[in-house]
């Protein structure tokens, strides 16, 4: 039974913050973005929900990086090149997960600075503990001496006393300070100016933002034996929950020279609200910091092996799958592949299909394709079979199978086309959380894996079951949007777009590309633009990126792909296709000629 | 003040106990006809002072006018107009009322929180928790269940914030847990889960022995959330069991604190469960109470359904809970 729990638990947790240190490290699949983050530069990581921002931020922290079994990571730790400090988003220091519009009083902002200072102090202690364990492993005596010395110095800097002699003591002292502060803030709120406030609690943290952390870095660098070349990476997760004004405060520190302290901030796309700082000069992207955008269907991974293929989404999904299995602690699973569990995809994987003129494929082509495509198909198949395959056969095969399956299905439960490892990878949009949730749902919802023996065999899940689970998930993913800010409008918008694409796909004769994207002008800054930006942040739409600058989100007229995760719900083919102007879809205009994506 | 005890009794006992007197009674005046239900059945001579908190932003809609007329006829009632999200307004009103009562005597306060916003009853708890009175304070918090008919409309979450006074403590970057008291709006739960991203999510559901379909409906609406996003061990407690839920949550928090440094409560279920969450957060400073704010769905006139509960919460002077 333990095995059963272990294997299921491997996919139960879909959020990096849900995992302990060892689990995060052992299940982490590094991409090129991660190695770029491990550098002495300021970065702002943009990614939709579930795209792995938190995993990246956590993995940069010293406690995680020092456990990562990778040559580059080992070299960074051994060479004392980086010390990462991870500050998670917590309502306890953010107070409000606010919108950009939140207005703050001076008192609110002072409290915010105080609490963020405190949060960075707590985070520094985690990093210091990891450094002590790692760099003083040779001598317990030296480690204890360093810990005592560091804690006395930090105690004076942060609390005004030197009584703390261990990290544990210091943590408790900070906890007490936070509690006392909480009481004082509550009393100020309750009694206003009708009662004297008394002595200000935590006065040493009522200083410039990050000043207590800089002090700690100063002392830590010396006591922990780190050189002046060590870069301290402060990873603040999910700054989308801060307001525009709070972004301005933090931006100021990206603009200033911060010595050996570098900032790694994560937020959702379009949720770095401003480039303004508290100085007269705004931030300059590319100069003061770099954006790194995660939601790219072309994820750059470490060297793929020859048996992994070339398409990045399946490789990424497969690596996550295998790492999770390996982390379940049962060695036999590490040899299982995603392909063994889900099989091939009929829609995406078929290569050597029969395209002779009397074949079933050709019959479907003549039944479902428009006249121009049929005419071109006949012309090519009789003159140049290779060109026919490249320009028509390969492109329409999946579309035809899907159209036919939808036409003859008596209900979604009977369909089987949304199945296969590559299709699951594609419908996850490269979003680790979506992928893990899908695999977890598959494992729990099928009755195939009710015993340890079932799991050990890890038999292939029937395509019908896969289709049912994926389609249900797809529908739930769409409906969930309703609880979000502007949820009702967003739900309506995405539904209207999806229905339009569904209608184009299944009510009309098709060409070699379906409509799968929309064209929108974000520079209009209207309500629709805001909805589109929100949809990108939530992973319902994916912008078409400039290949020369794939980390820059579009701000003007741009094309947005409907998330592949929604394809099963709208019975669409999960592939980039043509784009259609959003305004004409919303006006309900008849389908016109789409622009090629 | 220290939180000494939490007791639950049937609302009928409170109504029938004519020998029980209060120094102060506080009612809400809003658009739900439920807001006058307890005031109509309680003998006003049992209250030395009466106050009504009127929702400033929702005056006069639905049953608002009728409720106002009812309270206007109650002699000696003191009126305070406060926005539903304004805790400072509640503190100002309570300071005014508290100043009228002998600070050295034990205090008994009745609060009908059936139609109050959670910011209001959270502020009332906070006010007395931080009170400098020299005697004990006993709050009797009355609740009348409402009749909800028709489809539940989804709330749109714009801002996630802590209920004022229940912010928790930023105790480091360790793991975090969240307890969702679920109701009939599953989409709101997803939206909050996505934003606070707790390390572990747990769920609490309410059951109504008098309404057998109540629990089944909540389970059905939240099935996907429970099965795919939360620990599958669901806590189920009767809606009216404030004391039982409080005890259960205290045990859960004590257990979680051995492995997490940050605990959030998200109250999307019935008010008595949210009250229990607040009382637990008073006992454990690490706990924050998370609320979602957004564009309100159109209000509906909730009528009292007849069943209710009274939770007696006693604070005694001493050190503040730590």
Give an overview of the whole structure.
With 597 residues, chain A is an alpha/beta fold. Helices cover 50% and strands 8% of the residues of chain A. Chain A has helices spanning 2-12, 21-27, 32-37, 53-60, 62-65, 71-78, 91-94, 106-135, 140-159, 167-191, 211-223, 244-255, 312-327, 338-342, 360-368, 371-383, 385-408, 421-427, 432-445, 452-457, 463-479, 487-506, 527-538, 567-570, 582-586, and strands at residues 43-46, 82-87, 96-97, 231-236, 261-267, 290-293, 515-521, 541-543, 557-562, 578-581. In chain A, helix 8 packs parallel to helix 11. With 322 residues, chain B is of the alpha/beta class. Chain B has ten helices and 13 strands. Chain B has helices spanning 11-16, 37-41, 64-72, 87-98, 118-129, 186-196, 213-221, 223-229, 242-256, 271-283; strands spanning 2-10, 24-29, 50-55, 77-82, 107-112, 137-147, 159-167, 176-181, 200-207, 235-238, 262-267, 287-293, 303-316. Chain B is globular. The mean pLDDT of chain B is 88. Chains A and B meet through helix 7, strand 3, helix 8, helix 10 and helix 19 of A and helix 4, strand 7, helix 6 and helix 8 of B.
């Amino acid at each position: 039974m333990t095995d059963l729990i272990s294997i299921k638990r491997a996919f139960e947790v879909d959020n990096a913050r849900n995992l302990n240190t060892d689990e995060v490290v052992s299940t982490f699949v590094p991409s090129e973005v991660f190695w770029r983050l491990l550098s002495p530069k300021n970065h702002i990581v943009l990614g939709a929900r579930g795209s792995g921002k938190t995993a990246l931020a956590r993995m940069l922290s010293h406690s995680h990086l020092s456990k990562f079994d990778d040559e580059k990571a080992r070299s960074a730790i051994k060479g004392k090149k980086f010390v990462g400090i991870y500050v998670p988003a917590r309502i306890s220091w953010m107070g409000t997960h606010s919108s950009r519009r939140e207005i703050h009083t001076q008192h609110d902002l002072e409290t915010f600075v105080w609490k963020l200072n405190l949060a960075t102090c707590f985070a520094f202690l985690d990093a210091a503990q990891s450094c002590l364990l790692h760099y003083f492993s040779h001598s317990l005596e030296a480690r204890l001496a360093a810990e005592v010395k560091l804690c006395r110095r930090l105690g004076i800097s942060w609390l005004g006393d030197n009584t703390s002699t261990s990290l544990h003591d210091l943590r408790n002292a900070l906890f007490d300070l936070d509690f006392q502060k909480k009481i004082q803030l509550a009393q100020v709120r309750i009694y206003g100016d009708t009662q004297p406030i008394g002595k200000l609690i935590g006065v040493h943290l009522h200083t410039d933002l990050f000043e207590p952390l800089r002090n700690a870095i100063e002392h830590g660098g010396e006591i922990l034996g780190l050189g002046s070349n060590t870069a301290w990476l402060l990873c603040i997760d999910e700054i989308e929950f801060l307001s525009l004004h709070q972004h301005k405060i933090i931006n100021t520190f990206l603009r200033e020279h911060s010595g050996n302290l570098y900032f790694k901030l994560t937020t959702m796309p379009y949720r770095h609200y401003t480039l303004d700082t508290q100085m007269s000069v705004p931030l300059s992207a590319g100069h003061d910091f770099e954006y790194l955008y995660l939601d790219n269907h072309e994820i750059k991974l470490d060297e793929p092996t020859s048996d992994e293929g070339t398409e990045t989404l399946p490789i990424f999904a497969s690596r996550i799958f295998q790492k999770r299995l390996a982390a379940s602690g049962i060695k036999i699973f590490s040899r299982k592949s995603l392909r063994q569990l889900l099989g091939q995809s009929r829609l995406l994987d078929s290569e050597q299909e029969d395209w002779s003129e009397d074949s079933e494929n050709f019959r479907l082509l003549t039944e479902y394709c428009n006249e121009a495509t049929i005419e071109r198909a006949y012309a090519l198949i009789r003159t140049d079979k290779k060109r026919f395959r490249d320009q028509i056969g390969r492109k329409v095969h999946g579309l035809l199978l899907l159209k036919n399956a939808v036409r003859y299905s008596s209900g979604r439960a009977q369909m089987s086309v949304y199945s296969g490892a590559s299709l699951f990878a594609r419908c996850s949009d490269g979003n680790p959380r979506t992928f893990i949730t899908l695999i977890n749902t598959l494992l729990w919802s099928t009755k195939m894996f009710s015993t340890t023996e079932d799991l050990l065999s890890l038999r292939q899940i029937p395509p019908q079951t896969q289709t049912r689970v994926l389609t249900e998930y797809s529908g739930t993913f769409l409906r969930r949007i309703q609880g979000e800010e502007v949820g009702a409008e967003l739900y309506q918008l995405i539904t209207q777009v999806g229905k339009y694409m569904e209608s184009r796909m299944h009510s009309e004769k098709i060409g070699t590309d379906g409509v799968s994207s929309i064209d929108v002008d974000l520079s209009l800054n209207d309500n629709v633009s805001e909805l589109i930006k929100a949809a990108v942040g939530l992973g319902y739409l994916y912008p078409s990126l400039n290949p020369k600058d794939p980390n820059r989100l579009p701000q003007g007229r741009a094309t947005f792909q409907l998330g592949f995760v929604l394809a099963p719900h709208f019975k669409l083919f999960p592939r980039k296709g043509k784009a259609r102007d959003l305004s004409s879809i919303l006006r309900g205009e008849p389908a016109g000629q789409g622009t090629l994506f | 003040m220290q939180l000494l005890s939490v007791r639950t009794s049937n609302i009928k006992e409170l109504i029938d106990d004519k020998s029980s007197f209060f120094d102060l009674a506080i009612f809400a005046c809003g658009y739900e006809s439920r807001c006058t239900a307890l005031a109509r059945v309680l003998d006003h001579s049992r209250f030395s002072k009466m106050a009504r908190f009127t929702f400033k932003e929702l005056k006069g809609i639905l049953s608002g006018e009728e409720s106002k007329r009812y309270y206007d006829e109650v002699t000696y009632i003191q009126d305070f107009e406060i926005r539903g999200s304004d805790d400072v307004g509640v503190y100002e009103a309570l300071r005014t009322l508290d100043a009228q009562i002998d600070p050295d005597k034990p205090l008994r306060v009745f609060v009908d929180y059936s139609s109050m916003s959670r910011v209001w009853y959270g502020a009332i708890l906070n006010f007395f928790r931080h009170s400098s009175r020299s005697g004990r304070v006993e709050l009797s918090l009355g609740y009348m269940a409402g009749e909800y008919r028709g489809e539940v409309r989804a709330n749109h979450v714009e801002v996630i914030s802590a209920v004022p006074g229940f912010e928790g403590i930023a105790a480091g970057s360790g793991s975090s847990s969240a307890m969702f008291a679920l109701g009939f709006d599953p989409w709101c739960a997803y939206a909050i889960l996505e934003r606070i991203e707790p390390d572990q999510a747990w769920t609490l559901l309410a059951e109504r022995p008098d309404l057998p379909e109540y629990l089944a409906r909540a389970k059905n609406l939240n099935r996907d959330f429970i099965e795919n996003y939360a620990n599958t061990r669901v806590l189920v407690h009767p809606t009216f069991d404030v004391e039982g839920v409080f005890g259960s949550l205290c045990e859960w928090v004590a257990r979680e604190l051995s492995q997490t440094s940050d605990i959030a409560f998200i109250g999307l279920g019935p008010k008595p469960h949210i009250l229990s969450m607040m009382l637990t957060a008073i006992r454990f400073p690490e706990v924050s109470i998370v609320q979602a704010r957004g564009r309100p769905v159109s209000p509906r006139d909730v009528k009292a359904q007849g069943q209710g509960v009274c939770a007696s919460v006693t604070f005694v002077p001493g050190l503040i809970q730590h």
